[in-house]
Design a protein that fits this description.
Helix content of chain A: 40-55%
Radius of gyration of chain B: 17 Å
Shape of chain B: globular
Shape of chain A: globular
Strand order of the largest sheet of chain A: 2-1-3-4-5-6
Radius of gyration of chain A: 17 Å
CATH superfamily of chain A: NAD(P)-binding Rossmann-like Domain
Number of helices of chain B: 9
Strand content of chain A: 15-25%
Structural class of chain B: alpha/beta
Structural class of chain A: alpha/beta
Number of helices of chain A: 7
Strand order of the largest sheet of chain B: 3-2-1-4-5-6-7
Number of strands of chain A: 6
Oligomer: heterodimer
CATH class of chain A: Alpha Beta
Largest interface: A-B, 49 and 46 residues
């Protein structure tokens, strides 16, 4: 199998999922570069010119819409959520357009957009951005329809909180709260998730485009039925 | 069932928004319709609503402008003293191949459909909590199924679905329900001018074999904001005639 060049965007989000992905890709002999969440389209284009990626991964960002909403609803001033949404989704669209240009130039490839399953926010203090997650998933479905003929396969990955995010007793408390949903709070490690995503990235004949995949051990709920 | 309720419908003078406003008038609600720039359509809609005996006012407001959005809520409260229902229907689209779409066009769609709506919800929230009211988003099937040529539009409507779930989660405990409808192919003015060959393939993929009427969306919208839906919260209801492609 040929060596891949990969770029991971928003590699500084919580849970260190992106760092584990870089480690796993490098262990398999591939190249991996990260773009920080404070960087935008021009920075990506510069990086892409240097490393010519065939695989681009949007990692979960550190944005927390729940905190912003709580602040706004506290009545202080509705000033946080709307700008956060404008900045986050606007930046995502600019970056994904640049990613498509890059992959067209490089003869095709894969894009993965990874977000947290925000329904866990009921029981764990995790970053929660349902607006961003659903906007990104809707964009992925639409872009997939436009890019299928260009050799670009783009998919969404929804992940559950990973073991490294919280101490074991916090997961245990969540399990005890829920009883029958216990499996939802038996977390996977970052390493296992990184290995699964790397398996997808290594496939030259990936049999999916425009897919929305939930990765985790428990029942996935709360998202749109497609 | 909605008699005496004060309802704000953004983009309420044309298409689906107009049908929802008309249904609200029929149900006895006091209705505020906002529009962006088509004064003629607003006047025609108001004339129709008055003929139905409605208590309706119209306000020109561009949701992409934070000052105008704040003024819109201010006008509603000044005129009626309360707000029971917010229907976020206003939206724009710029269609075209995503790879060559201008950044300004993407920004305009996101700012109007999602950012402006988010801002309006934040401004309306205290009044809706006081009234134990409800919010309805008019999303789109494009957010669920994806739509080539409409990437920013689909993303903005996907964001609205997320906002629906987020607000439902946060406001449910305060007695405010938040739901959404996701209409599919609906006979609006824009569609009426298209030749049938442009949408025949969509009808073939729709199990009812026809496009929807704005009034059919309005029926579901009024159900979701009304007392019959009192235990429905955070729902995104597809109104697509059974579309599967």
């Amino acid at each position: 199998m040929r060596t891949l060049s990969c770029v991971i965007i928003d590699g500084d989000g919580p849970g260190k999922t992106a760092c584990h992905l870089v480690t796993e890709l490098e262990r398999r002999g591939h190249g991996a570069a990260m773009l920080g969440s404070d960087l935008d389209r021009a920075d990506f284009i510069n990086l892409a010119h240097r490393v010519s990626p065939q695989r681009i991964v949007f990692a979960p960002s550190a944005r927390n819409e729940c905190d912003a909403l709580d602040f706004d609803l506290a009545g202080l001033a509705p000033k946080r959520l709307a700008p956060m949404v404008a900045d986050g989704i606007g930046r995502f669209l600019r970056l994904i357009q640049a990613a498509i240009h890059t992959l067209i130039r490089n003869g095709g490839g894969q894009i993965w957009v990874v977000d947290w399953d925000d329904t866990f926010e009921y029981h764990l203090p995790m970053p929660c951005s349902p607006m961003q997650a659903e906007a990104r998933a809707a964009a992925v479905r639409s872009v997939a329809k436009e890019c299928a003929g260009l050799g670009i396969k783009i998919n969404s990955l929804s992940i559950q909180p990973v073991a490294e995010m919280f101490p074991p007793e916090q997961f245990r408390d969540a399990r005890n709260d829920l009883k029958t949903y216990a499996w939802r709070y038996k977390p996977l490690s970052c390493g296992v998730l990184a290995a699964q995503l790397s398996d997808f990235l290594e496939r030259s004949d990936l049999p999916m485009a425009g897919a929305f995949i939930s990765l985790g051990m428990g029942v996935c709920q709360g998202h749109l039925v497609q | 069932m909605l008699k005496g309720k004060v309802c704000l419908v953004t983009g309420g003078t044309k298409g689906i928004g107009r049908a929802i406003s008309q249904e609200l008038v029929k149900q006895g609600a006091q209705v505020v319709v906002s529009y962006r720039n088509d004064r003629g359509a607003a006047e025609r809609a108001l004339k129709k609503f008055f003929n139905l005996g409605g208590e309706v006012i119209s306000i020109r407001s561009n949701l992409a402008d934070p000052v105008e959005t704040e003024a819109l809520i201010g006008c509603v409260i000044e005129h009626f003293g309360r707000l029971d229902v917010l229907i976020n229907n206003a939206g724009v689209t710029v269609d075209g191949a995503f790879a060559s779409m201008a950044a300004d066009d993407m920004e305009r769609v996101i700012n109007t459909n999602l950012v402006g709506t988010t801002r309006l919800c934040m401004l309306a929230a205290p009044h809706l909590v006081a009234a134990q009211g409800s919010i309805l988003m008019v999303s789109s099937l494009a957010s669920v199924s994806g739509k080539e040529g409409q990437v920013p539009y689909a993303a903005s409507k996907g964001g609205l679905n997320g906002l629906t779930r987020l607000l439902a989660r946060r406001l449910g405990g305060c007695g405010v329900r938040v739901n959404a409808v996701a209409p599919g192919f609906i006979r609006t003015d824009m569609v009426k001018s298209l030749p049938e060959s442009n949408y025949e393939h969509i009808l073939r993929a729709t199990s009812l074999g026809r496009m929807g009427e704005p009034e059919e969306v309005a029926g579901a919208a009024v159900f979701l904001i009304g007392p019959a839906a009192s235990y429905i919260n955070g729902m995104i209801l597809r109104i697509d005639g059974g579309f599967h492609r």
